[in-house]
Input
Amino acid sequence: MSERIILITDADLKTIIIEAIREVDETKRKEEPEKLLTVNKVARRTGRSHATITKLRNEGVLRSTKDGLILGSSLEEYLYSQ
Output
């Protein structure tokens, strides 16, 4: 087997690592039941106001159940995108 040296930029390495972490997180999510969070709990965890979280939920940025509970996976996706 021959050895190769691969050059990669910091930005590309960061992208690869983030994608790998997302794949692991996705696998874990499939194995665990979905966590449901109240608006207050999400507001406390993110340091944002209750009104901001409610607005994000109502706009569909944070997915929720019919009774208004926010999906944990939706919160994680939102936080990754920030």
Summary: Residues 33-82 form one domain.
